[in-house]
User: Fold this.
Amino acid sequence: MQHVYAVDRFRASPTWPVGFRAYTGHGGLRADGDDISIVVSDRPAVSAAVFTRSRFAGAAVRLSREHAAGRRLRAVGTLAKNANVATGRPGDTHAAEVAGRIAAIVAVPTDEVLIGMTGVIGRPLPMDTIRAHLDRAARLGPAGFDADPVRVARAMMTTDTRPKTAERTVGRARIVGVAKGVGMLEPDMATMLAYVFTDAAVPPTELDAAFRAAVDKSFNCLSVDTDTSTSDTAAILANGAAGPVDPAEFAASLADLCLDLTEQLARDGEGATKLLRVTVDRARDDAQAKRVAKSVLNSPLVKTAVHGADPNWGRVVMAVGKNSADTDIDPNRVTVRFGALEVYPADPTPAALAELGEYMRRPEVDIHIHLGLAGGTATGYGCDLSAGYVRVNADYTS
Assistant:
């Protein structure tokens, strides 16, 4: 499995797998810069997708759920800076029109188009400017699509500070992913917008199973602020141009790519200065491990301690203890470490606390919690909590 690293960590810029083309342009949704993107396969593809469970899911999510059910998605279109959520029937009509216009541009059936919309909730789409822009894109046509994955990832951004891309190879096939999202991130089936494209030939049932398994161990283990978005969408399209691949190698590479994107998203969390990983093992089962990891990862007190490099490790055991329904968690069996430094049940000396403070100044902080019960394990991915998060979200629409 070959790794090609993402641009925000001095990585080479990836190119699309065989058969995929992309377009980006400025449709007037943001003041300047591209805000509309389209990725399309030049041949039929199979697909899998997962979406937010929010009861206020946006019109794009509701429409794309219907289209994704056929597992034959061939194009993905995204509008940034406007989520088209809580906009009533006009929002539904506008989402259907955008999907239909994109389908016409790339000459595929409308029900083979997935659309994503992300940004401010409760504002109607500026359809006049969007229509005018898509008319110009139609005159260009897919033959003129020349945007690379970095441009697509950048066009998807809202409060992101950098584009997120990742790439892996499996045999002769390649897998390329793009993602956006830095706030309103507490996944429930999916998180933010994440699209994966591959030229591997994978049967739709196998693709769906591999993608859901990858999402569960990566995007669904991510949290920035405990808030689940109304627009979360994650999808994969496979057009088979490179031929069949080993199923186990494909699943492993896909999972690794999704985890790469997850960590990029966590590093770029709104106001974030550090990546925070919380691993729980020897839990009763994986579900318990994930629940405990999330309770630590989402604790404002833990996150602010990490931000300030304050060696207040007691906040971690507090967050573990919040899981009051998990009556099998016994403090006498629990062990807590920061990196390699055990803080509980050890009684850290002043020198050890100073060492812990130094460790917490690093750009990546790992907390390990051993429950001493059984074989369950999970890792959660997130970030510290800084004043920058408050500034970004206090002024988001003003």
